[in-house]
Amino acid sequence: MGRFAEVFLGILTAVGGFVEIGELTFTLTAGSIFGYTLLWVTALGTAGIILYCEMAGRIAAVKHRAVFSLIRERTGFTAGLITLVAATGVSVLTCAAEIGGVALVWQLLSAWSYRWLVIAALVFFVLVVWWLEFEWIERVFGLGGLLMCVYVATALAEGPSWSDLLAGLVPRTPDVASGRELANYWYYAVAILSSIMLPYETYFYASGGIEDQWKPKDITLNRVIVIVGFALGGLLSVSLVVIGAEFFQAHSIQPQLPGSAAISAVLAFGSVGLFAALLGMFFAFAGAAIETALSGAYNIAQFVGWPWGKYREPRNAARFTLTWLVIFVACTAIIVTGIDPVQVVEYSIVFSVVVLPFTYLPVLVVAADKRIMGEYANGIASNVLGWIYLVIITLAAIVAIPLFVFTHGGQA
Question: Which pTM value belongs to this model?
Fold first, then answer.
């Protein structure tokens, strides 16, 4: 494949895989409650995931080291094990929510039984991950996720208030009637930041660089993909906030289920908008389910030193293969009980932010170490921004659970 085509495909898959069920849910709901005032969090989170994924991808290209091998090396076995358990729990919750989201989308398309569709989703995911090579998993679900761009067109069709949009990019405290509503605002701020900077994205991205056998010459490719691809993905997130503000808030609707998002696309583009929205959500949710299951297996295998990777035959990485199979089964068992996928999303998003500092600190330390990275170590700007973001996500991790409890999961 030519270099340009490789970069172009990488950017498209990054855009298509940027939004998953948690980000869709929280950005739309935040827009319906607070209008444009949380757009600055979307911009902040997008810049943060670009910063740290670039570092993780660069480490993978130069040293062929994945995130969890760095975590164990830099934090020690005990702290690393705690991080592994927490990260695996978050991956399972996130994957379960994505599987539930896929079943909900299929139910909207077919009107079949939800629980049987959850089982069908399990079979689908096992077959896809077993038979498709890594690059085809990325391409099929990343490119299919580009159908989510119907929401960009929908946001433009809604006629956004450009002055309010620009004002929303500036952090400010909204006018609210009570301290509880203010706490609700900050709960959604933390949730949106977490949904964009989900730790599995960094685990999967770095492991994917190793799967694709990146070398130092691929550092430029890495930078272009994360900067352009994730920035365009951030534009999709902004569009969801705009739809929440212009459509759902204007009609006094709070979108409680992922399928609610398609309503705005239907009114803007009719049946074409409906099918584009639903298929886009299917590919986005399915891609995220696969990424989280593989990320959980990557993390465990990297931590304990097992052979891992989709590039290996299943019999040559049997424990890695068994791990992602068990994760899919466990996630399906959670959802098939009938628990609301949106509730699972809330737990996964809130608890994932607690893991963020333990994920990103080792990445920052290694990427900044010239003894390890040599000429490819962080520059001054990357180091300064990296530490600023580490402080931000640490503060978010400290307040996430108290805000979740105080606001009853954003219901204040």
Answer: 0.91
Residue 187 to residue 193: CA distance in whole angstroms: 10
- CA–CA separation, 182 and 46 (whole Å): 23
Neighbours of 329 (CB within 10 A): 12
CA distance 191 to 237: 13
Range of the domain at 67: 3-406
pLDDT in tens, 16-30: 567 888 888 889 999
Contact indicator for 27, 152 with CB cutoff of 8 Å: no
CATH number of the domain enclosing 176: 1.20.1740.10
CB atoms inside a 10 Å sphere around CB 225? 27
Residue 87 to residue 183: CA distance in whole angstroms: 26
Q: What is the DSSP letter of 337?
A: T
Q: How far apart are CA 26 and CA 48, in angstroms?
A: 18
Query: 313 in the Ramachandran plot: left (φ > 0), alpha (ψ -120 to 50) or beta?
Result: beta
Q: What is the token pair recorded at 204?
A: 């999967």
Number of domains in the chain: 1
CB 228 within 8 A of CB 13: no
Question: Rounded to whole angstroms, how far apart are CA atoms 158 and 392?
Answer: 33
For the segment 128-183, what is each residue's pLDDT rounded down to a tens digit?
A: 999 999 888 988 898 888 899 999 999 999 888 899 999 999 998 777 667 888 99
Dihedral Cα 399, 386, 64, 225, nearest 10 deg: 100
Residue 21 lies in a domain: yes
Axis-axis angle for helices 261-304, 21-34 (nearest 10): 140
Matching residue, tokens 């069920």: 21
For 309-321, write each residue's pLDDT tens digit.
Answer: 988 888 899 999 9
Q: How many Å is the Cα radius of gyration of the chain?
A: 20
Tokens 């203010």 found at:
182
Residues, the chain, total?
412
Alpha-carbon separation of residue 10 from 34, 223, 376 (angstroms): 34, 11, 21
183 is a domain residue: yes
Judge whether 16 and 144 are in contact, CB under 8 Å: yes
Phi/psi for 291 (5° steps) reads: -65, -40
Residue found by looking up tokens 């991080």 in the block: 83
SS (H, E, C) 47-91: HHHHHHHHHHHHHHHHHCCCHHHHHHHHHCHHHHHHHHHHHHHHH
Average pLDDT of the residues in 212-218? 90
